[in-house]
Design a protein that fits this description.
The chain has 96 residues and is mostly beta strands. The protein has one domain: Sandwich (Jelly Rolls). Strands 1-8-3-6 form a four-stranded antiparallel β-sheet, with no helix packed on it. The radius of gyration is 13 Å and the shape is globular. The mean pLDDT is 94. It is 0% helix and 50% strand.
C-alpha cells in the first residue's frame, strides 16, 4: 500500500533558496510541478540552488512542467526563482 502527501512552496524572496519541507521526510517518489501561474522558471536543487541570471545552479523548471525524484529526503530539496511568489506543488508517495 502507498501513502501520498502533498504540499506547496513559494519563493518568499527572490535569490534566497526556499526549503520544500522543514524536517526530514524520506520519500520513495516525488513529483514537483512548477505552478502554471509562474511568470518565470523555478530552479530546483540543494540549499545552494540559485536562479540569479548568469549564476544559475540546480535544474530549471518551466511553468507547468514536472521534475521527478526517487528516494530522497524532502528536507534536502530547495527552490529559487528570480521573482518572489513563484512556486511549486509536490506529491510524495511512500510505501506504508
Amino acid at each position: 500500500m502507498n501513502a501520498i502527501k502533498s504540499g506547496r512552496a513559494e519563493v518568499a524572496e527572490a535569490g534566497e533558496p526556499m526549503q520544500l519541507w522543514p524536517e526530514a521526510m524520506e520519500a520513495h517518489d516525488v513529483d514537483i510541478v512548477a505552478l502554471n501561474t509562474n511568470m518565470s522558471r523555478v530552479w530546483i536543487g540543494d540549499n545552494n540552488v540559485r536562479a540569479e541570471v548568469g549564476n544559475e545552479t540546480g535544474m530549471p523548471l518551466e511553468p507547468g512542467h514536472v521534475y521527478h525524484l526517487d528516494r530522497v529526503d524532502m528536507s534536502t530539496i530547495y527552490i529559487d526563482s528570480a521573482t518572489a511568489g513563484e512556486g511549486v506543488t509536490w506529491n510524495v508517495v511512500n510505501d506504508v
